[in-house]
Amino acid sequence: MKIRKSTIIIHVIAWSIALFWILPFLGVFMAAIRPFKEIVYGWWRFEEFNPSLNFFAAALNNPSFPMSRGIINSFIIAIPSTIIPLLVASLTAYGFGRFSFPLKDYLFIHIVILMSVPQQMMVIPLFFIMGDLGLLNTHFGLILIHSSWGLAWIIFFMKNYFSILPVDVEEAARVDGASYFKIFYKIVLPMAIPALISAAVLQFTWVWNDFFFALMFLYDPHKMVATQCLSNMKGELHFDWQLLSAGSIIVMIVPVLIYVLLQKYYIRGMIGWVRKG
User: How many CB atoms lie within 10 A of CB 191?
Assistant: First the structure.
């Protein structure tokens, strides 16, 4: 089979871009496994090469801000902050996609506008609201904030996906006497699994990587998430770059693994609503 020149050029460009993007990660990884004296003149120099996992162990067992505890706290917050908005937003998006009601278009426009509101604009009123409710410095309070913050974009995303699903099966089920809710969770949701997984991966990643909301609403060292532990591991007068590099890799490895494991469904969900069939 003949390979066209355009195919070769596309592959060369794609691999070049991939290599360009992965170089910083390689530098961080080398800093995490090699002593400082070996990388001080460039991590790409291998006159001496004595890799070690000691810095990962030191980051996980840091005496003041252990990454192991931060990882657990991040899971405690990220998992429900992904499931709750996904369930609520999917049901809401189905209502926008299948039913007609007064002010439907205006409500949906307001939801889209909410996607453009920056976190910094809302942090002060949120701080006072959470304080009045007694939810400051609690995991539950941060879960509520992340869940509500993710509703707007997930509704927008799922509504677009539901709009391309065939309605024939739903109409047949309705003729057979199925309720709207039964049609939703027995027919629509199984067909929307790629979109649900795509939204779940993105929401989990954003919550996992969040630092701003965690910084504003969590200040107990025992409740801090992984990103906060990573930031607090730096010293006041001295930065241990090997320790910080190891901590950075520990933080990023979880969303990377989730994306790798769910890549097939993620891609199908992301491109599914931009084409028919």
Answer: 14
Calculate the CA 189 to chain-centre distance.
Answer: 21
**Domains of the chain by range and CATH?**
1-52 (no CATH), 57-272 (1.10.3720.10)
CB 152 within 8 A of CB 189: no
Phi/psi-derived region of residue 235, left when phi > 0, alpha when psi is between -120 and 50, beta in every other case: beta
The mean pLDDT of 8-37, rounded to a whole number, is: 87
| pLDDT value, residue 277 | 41
Q: CA separation (Å) from 237 to 56, 164, 233, 234, 246?
A: 22, 57, 12, 9, 19
Supply 175's token pair: 């003729």
Between CA 212 and CA 247 the distance in angstroms is 18
Whole-number Å distance between alpha carbons of 219 and 107:
36
What are 184-188's contacts with CB under 8 Å, separation 24+? 184/91, 184/94, 188/94, 188/162
Confidence category of residue 175, pLDDT binned at 50, 70, 90: confident
Mean pLDDT of the chain: 86
